[in-house]
Recover the amino acids of this structure.
């Protein structure tokens, strides 16, 4: 064997050692990739039921919102009807009630004025009147 052959064998051995040293991290990196793949599969398997439940929940919430929307429309319609009814009642009953209240106030004021006049008349007839002026003497 020549010196070149020995150098080639040494170089091949060093290369084999380097490949062996590089193979260990590559094998470990392959294991990490396997664990990552398994973790992603587990997460995917866990997320699928959650997404299904979320979809069902959102669909049920949409149904309830549709019901609430219908109820809101009905309440709006009832409110409009009540407002119209109140306006109609105020127009048909309110005017006559105001006239009746005015009439009763006028009658009350009239009765009170008659009572006051009667009291003044009674007071005038029951008490003698005194005059502060001295009576005039006749000059006979």
């Amino acid at each position: 064997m020549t010196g070149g052959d020995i150098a080639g064998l040494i170089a091949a051995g060093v290369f084999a050692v380097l490949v062996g040293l590089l193979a260990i991290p590559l094998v470990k990196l392959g294991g990490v990739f396997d664990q990552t793949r398994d973790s992603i599969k587990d997460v995917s398997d866990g997320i699928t039921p959650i997404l299904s439940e979320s979809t069902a929940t959102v669909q049920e919430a949409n149904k309830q919102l549709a019901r609430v929307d219908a109820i809101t429309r009905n309440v709006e319609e009832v409110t409009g009807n009540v407002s119209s009814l109140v306006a109609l009642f105020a127009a048909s009953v309110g005017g006559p009630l105001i006239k009746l209240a005015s009439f009763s106030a006028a009658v009350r004021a009239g009765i009170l004025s008659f009572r006051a006049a009667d009291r003044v008349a009674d007071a005038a007839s029951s008490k003698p009147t005194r005059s502060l002026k001295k009576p005039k003497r006749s000059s006979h």
Observations:
- The longest helix spans residues 3-126.
- The chain is about 90% helix and 0% strand.
- Residues 124 and 130 are 11 Å apart (CA to CA).
- The radius of gyration is 57 Å.
